[in-house]
Each structure stands twice: as C-alpha cells, then as structure tokens.
C-alpha cells in the first residue's frame, strides 16, 4: 500500500473514532440529572394508575406520581435479564407489600431494542406485574449510554423537571431485600 493510502485510512479512522466519542451519550452517574426521555404510556389502565398517569401517548419519568423510581434496562433476549426476572418480581412485590415503600417507590422496565410485542411476550412469560416499556428503536438505550443489560438506575423525583440519579449499575440483584434497603436509604423515602 502506498503511504498516501495508509495516511488517508489513518485520517478516516481518527475521524470515525472522534465522531463516535463526540456523539456517544454517557451512562448516567450518581449525582447527575436523569437524562430526559419520553416513554410510551402503558395501554393497561391498571399500569397507568400504578404510575399515576392517565390517557395515552408519552410520558416523562418526572411525571410518575412517586418519590423514587427504579428503572431496569432489559432485553427480552438477554439471558441475564431472564434469569433475574424472578428477583425483580420479588423486589416489586416487596415494595408493594411494605407501607414504607408502597406508592413511594415505583419500578419500570425499558426493553432495549424490544417492540411492544416482545415486551408483552417477556411480561407474560416471566409474569412481570410492573410496567414494561418498549424501546424498539434503541432511542432510550442510546440516551442512557448504550448500557449492557440488565442495568439499573434509581432516580429521586422531587417535583423538579430533572430527577437526580442516586444509583446506576450493571447487573442483577440476588439479594433484593438488601437492594431495596439501599434504595430506601439513598432516596430517603418517607
């Protein structure tokens, strides 16, 4: 190869590398504002009521009627998400059965690359009772830094436009009681 071709390829490589790093979103970090995202409202009226929403269309996280929200980024095709589904279901049940946390902490799942059909299939197969939101075009997934799954973000909703990130980590939760206690402590729900 000539030196000109090698130099041109090197320049193209550097431009591509620079472009990717400039446009890539970063993963939400503890203390950051939660990135703004528009999510499709659930069609199920019981799930809308759980979130404190009504109607159809889209909603933002700060519109959920609660003090804190646990966001699970999952994929129907992720074997780790599938294995963790019973744990997250237990977490949801613990939250809903405890007067300290019921209505104060909500759980939602966002299906990275999953259509409504895929989300519904996952919900039915793993008996998920909390809202699962499709993200077929990976738009939300990109906003949160293209994280691997399952990924968890806990945000404090204090009535402001931008909820604060209080937890942001990859991985399943074997000990959901300990995770819930950590969420209660870091969010200060009362």
Could you characterize the architecture of this molecule?
- This protein is of the alpha/beta class and 190 residues long.
- The protein has one domain: Glutaredoxin (3-Layer(aba) Sandwich), CATH 3.40.30.
- 39% of the residues lie in helices and 20% in strands.
- The protein is built from six helices and seven strands; from the N terminus they run αβαββαβαβαββα.
- The chain has helices at 3-23, 45-51, 79-97, 116-125, 139-143, 176-187, and strands at 38-40, 58-60, 68-74, 105-112, 132-135, 151-156, 164-170.
- The strands form two sheets. It has a five-stranded mixed beta sheet. A two-stranded antiparallel sheet has the order 1-2.
- Helix 3 packs across helix 6 (176-187).
- It is globular.
Low-confidence stretches: 6-10, 12-24
How much is the radius of gyration in Å? 19 Å
Number of helices: 6
How far apart the termini lie comes to: 68 Å
Largest sheet: 5 strands, mixed
CATH topology: Glutaredoxin
Question: Which tags fit this structure?
Answer:
190 residues, globular, alpha/beta, 5-stranded mixed β-sheet, single chain, 6 helices, Glutaredoxin
